[in-house]
Design goal:
Elements lengths: L2 E6 L6 H12 L3 E7 L1 H8 L7 H9 L6 E5 L5 H7 L4 E5 L14 E5 L7 H11 L1
Parallel strand pairs: 1-2, 1-4, 2-3, 4-5
The structure holds cytidine-5'-triphosphate.
Length: 131
């Protein structure tokens, strides 16, 4: 069985999120998703998520093809998470291209292209424009 792991905030679920999760799952037989905690998201993106970490976890867990979820507390623990969840493949969006190559010692690292024209940030900006 080939196990895939990926990570992200996944706030205000959109089609870019769904597509990367489906494509990650298609690379193996089991998909684990690490959801950034509220604190990790704040430190990474300098903004608060709209949905709480427990809401984001529950939403991602409900998606067909997602087999397991957990809260990612620190970027420094990636290697531990890869080992703990016995991942054979680490999937990241290509906004991170090259940045995770050192994990090739632990598992295969695959960067998938992002879906053009959508992000949580742009969705929020669109909502603000409507308000
Ligand atoms: N992702 C994607 N295509 C998009 C947006 C995100 O494939 N258009 C992927 C990212 O590469 C990452 C995962 O979805 O692997 C979670 O990304 P996240 O940062 O939560 O989503 P964004 O929409 O990029 O959020 P933000 O605008 O807040 O940075």
């Amino acid at each position: 069985m080939k196990r895939v792991i990926t990570f992200g905030t996944f706030d205000m679920l959109h089609v870019g999120h769904i597509r990367i999760l489906q494509r990650a799952r298609a690379l193996g037989d089991h998909l684990t998703v690490g959801i950034s905690t509220d604190a990790l998201n704040r430190s990474k993106k300098q903004k608060n998520a709209i949905y709480s970490e427990m809401e984001r976890l529950e939403i991602i867990k409900a998606i067909i093809g997602v087999d397991d979820v957990f809260l990612e507390h620190s970027l420094e623990l990636k290697a531990d998470y890869i080992r703990q969840y016995k991942a054979d493949i680490l999937v990241m969006g290509d906004d991170w291209a090259g940045k995770f190559d050192h994990f090739n010692a632990l598992c295969k690292v695959v960067y998938l292209s992002r879906t053009d024209g959508i992000s949580t940030t742009s969705t929020l900006e669109g909502i603000k424009r409507l308000a």
